Amino acid sequence: MKLVSIIIPFFNKWHLTHKSLMQLYTFAPENCEIILVNDASTETDCEGGIAWWQKQAAKHKIRYRKNEKNLGFGGSMNVGAKTARGDIFIFLSNDVAIYGDFVSQIEDRLMENPNSLLGGQVINFPGGWNEVEIDGKKSFVPYANGWLIACTREVWESLDGFDPLYGKFDYEDIDLSTQAIAKGYDIISLGSKLVEHNHQGATIETLGVDRMAHTKENREKYINKWKDKFPDMSERLSNV
Predict the structure, then answer these.
(1) How many CB atoms sit inside 10 A of residue 216's CB?
(2) What is the pTM of this model?
(3) Banded pLDDT at 186 (limits 50, 70, 90)
(4) Domain limits of the chain?
(5) What's the average model confidence in pLDDT over 182-198?
(6) How far apart are CA 233 and CA 177, in angstroms?
(7) Residue 107 CB: number of other CB atoms within 10 A?
């Protein structure tokens, strides 16, 4: 049986992570380890909560890392991936709702198509911020939405991880998906009712930044990074 590493970053709002751990304890199979990445939280209840889970939850091995400074979503996911020992990586936001064993569903999908990047939701339509221009024609880049992304260890190690270019949030999931497409991997959707993203942006709300301005800035970074490569990827994009 393969080991599955579930990587969960968090910044404050310990109640969200505690809820996720409770739901994983209830529904996730025993062949899972959980990597918690504390992104330099300032609230004091986080450490006590983690200690309780590490002592009491014998079903899953819980590994813990704390960033010295706030790295944001992608940076913390990268930290977790370096700690992970599994054959399958699941990158999971702590603001999801879990209703059943979605982990086994992911295992099944990746067994069917190991050369893929799997998303809890795939944005396979023009959504504004994933639209690009290729040879004068508008197109869009399908991407695995960042609240749940999974892949085999082999696929992850062939990618460059979440690019720190984008700072603490926004566009790191589109960029990772673009990396996968450029390397010939499929972008596939889990499409499960057993895990849903119910509290979108719950952590970002606490950072006190202009979300829209940051998103627009990251869009420009993304376009500048990939614009010269889009023409070579046009056939791959049309077949995703």
Answers:
(1) 12
(2) 0.93
(3) very high
(4) 4-239
(5) 94
(6) 12
(7) 20
